[in-house]
Batch of 3 targets.
Target 1
Amino acid sequence: MPNQSIQTDILIVGSGAAGLFAALQIPAEKHVLLITKKEAEQSDSFLAQGGICVLRDLSDYESYYQDTLKAGHYENNPAAVHTMIASSRTIINQLLTLGVPFAQENGTLCYTREGAHSAPRILYHQDQTGKAITSCLLEQAKQRSNITILEHTTLLDLLCQQNCCYGGIVQQADDTIATILAANTILATGGIGGLYSHSTNFAHLTGDSLAIAQRHQVALKNIDYIQIHPTTLYSQKPGRRFLISESVRGEGAVLLNAAGERFTDELQPRDVVTQAIYQQMELDCKPYVHLSLLPIKKETILQHFPTIYQHCLEEGYDITKEPIPIVPAQHYFMGGIQIDLEGRTSMQHLYAVGETACNGVHGANRLASNSLLESLVFAQRAALDILAQNEPSALFWQTAVQLAANVQPNRYLPAQALQQTYQQQVLEAIQLEKGKHQHE
Ligand SMILES: Cc1cc2nc3c(=O)[nH]c(=O)nc-3n(C[C@H](O)[C@H](O)[C@H](O)COP(=O)(O)OP(=O)(O)OC[C@H]3O[C@@H](n4cnc5c(N)ncnc54)[C@H](O)[C@@H]3O)c2cc1C
């Protein structure tokens, strides 16, 4: 019997943009319990630098659609791409209403461009777009009386039976095990960067939901589709790699080899630029190449990229005066728990949204600045799908109570060891999937 049992209407796992936006769709009469592994601000959503895409006007639809498909090697789910693009303006308007301070000039929104985009269609706030969006969502969530946020609370397993989810089993801040009974559960646990030694992600993002889903035969999709970001600041220190946003290349920054010469078109899709860098590193026999921001005006650097400027300065590089060493690193997870366009997984009453989910919108490779947008669009759709359901029956809650009573906390302790097992399990599943794709 676990130490504690909590009941809620909707359990949301993860306090990134996807989890928070889903929570904000739920009206006051329904209770949301949002749990998160560390502090609420520790999500990749806070790290997003470049921006968020939007359909500027209908004349850009075809071009935006084609750019997304081309970057995704035409493996994208066309319906998901259409849904994301068609919903983008509404989502941005909602963010503006919530007070997200996207860059504007004379009252008009500014649009920037990144690799593989054939037109400027990305909204931004300096080089801290993710923080601007997610801190605003978090602030709103904290003000809602129907949303409870529990930090340092980690999902360890699903409370489920016969392919139906009744909530989750969690490790609480004091290390005790509790059960959360929920009519619906949304997994929004982000990416898998914590499984890699070189990644731009927070180290605690280890794909826990994937391991848990796999345990209960919930369908996964494309889990070997992992994006490497071409440009992170080269460092020999351990820990998260600092991203040098693609938008610096959109604004004119160039890649240089050891002889100080350009060696590729910097605005190709990420995977193509990454390959070109790896090849150049081999030719130069160096663990990095250089990125020069010197073609960008100093005032643009200071205004548009203050965080990158400051961070590089702290690492000993003045980007307004000299090129910086950069190296590719794990960045984004295109695969995940298989979902449909409403965020539904293969298990009843279980949803997945954001980076941990996969409806095929990104295909084999994500187009820059599509992920924040995708997270918000499909998080909203999942929440609305939940709201359209009938209330669960008395039998549903009786089963949930029964399942919770049967939980044996010792099976989940020590939780750290269990999490290590999960990590190994996810890495093995990725390898297995990779092998399958190679033989196809
Ligand atoms: C450096 C960087 C720059 C980026 N730049 C951009 C950009 O410019 N534009 C763009 O569109 N995208 C960008 N991205 C990608 C984008 O930020 C993410 O894809 C997106 O924010 C994912 O949101 P999410 O809500 O799914 O996950 P996250 O924001 O990562 O949130 C995941 C949450 O789940 C919690 N969690 C994980 N496991 C558990 C568990 N077992 N129990 C409880 N809680 C758990 C975490 O603590 C966290 O709160 C960038 C990513 C990085 C790393």
Note: The chain has two domains: 4-225+334-439, 231-328.
Target 2
Amino acid sequence: MVSDKAKQELREKSTSDQTDFMMDLFKYTDKDQNGYLTLDEVRGLHKRLSEDLEKDDFDQLELTEEDCEDAFRRMDRNGDGKVGLIEFGRFMVPYFV
Ligand SMILES: [Ca+2]
Ligand SMILES: [Ca+2]
């Protein structure tokens, strides 16, 4: 599961609403709930979004499967093939400011 240290770091870098949003998105993406995202899970998020959202909303996202792979590689800073909450948070925070 997500460590307290990771949650702490997120809280310091973002407002509590943003933290909640990121935590929810992280949990939503982390399908097996082991506290790390894999490329398959990020690809799975893409698939689930495309199924959950109205087609028009999804088209507006302009999110392709290649974008997911690209985003995953950028999130996985230490290149171990897993993205923890800290890596995820560091990737997400710039989009909120
Ligand atoms: Ca996982
Ligand atoms: Ca990593």
Note: DSSP finds six helices and no strands in the chain.
Target 3
Amino acid sequence: MALIRLPRETEAGGCRRCAVGCDRVVYPAGCVDSGCPRLYAYSEHGTTWVGCLAKVFAVEIDLARLEDAELTRHGFGGLRVVGEPLAQCSVAVDRTFEHRAVGPCRNPGFLHSAPPAAARAPAPPGQAA
Ligand code: SF4
Ligand code: SF4
């Protein structure tokens, strides 16, 4: 995957209030599929790069690689959220160390801010995640 810079750490992207460690991810394939007006694109040296004007994710992605990955069983996957997602964003919460849970979640607002990543079925070849 060709990315040109790394996202910064923000509260929007993760919760570390307990040992589980949850991350919120956004699926760029969903940006393309929804025709989101916040998705920008430009071409440079024969490569088309796409990114999010709203900075829900902070990297720019090689569109051809995104499309190629979406043809595989697991698709391109998700990017860690760095800005608060909008209604049209395709997001999920990934509980990194779910087996470490001791007691109830201390930040249910974050945990339930998106569907669990584990519930996302792998995209069939040729279809978006
Ligand atoms: S606002 Fe959401 S759907 Fe639109 S480009 Fe950004 S991350 Fe994608
Ligand atoms: S389980 Fe709850 S408190 Fe723990 S990291 Fe996830 S959102 Fe935060």
Note: The pocket of iron/sulfur cluster (ligand 1) is lined by residues 26, 31, 34, 36, 38-39, 52, 54, 56-57, 86, 88-89 (CB under 6 Å).
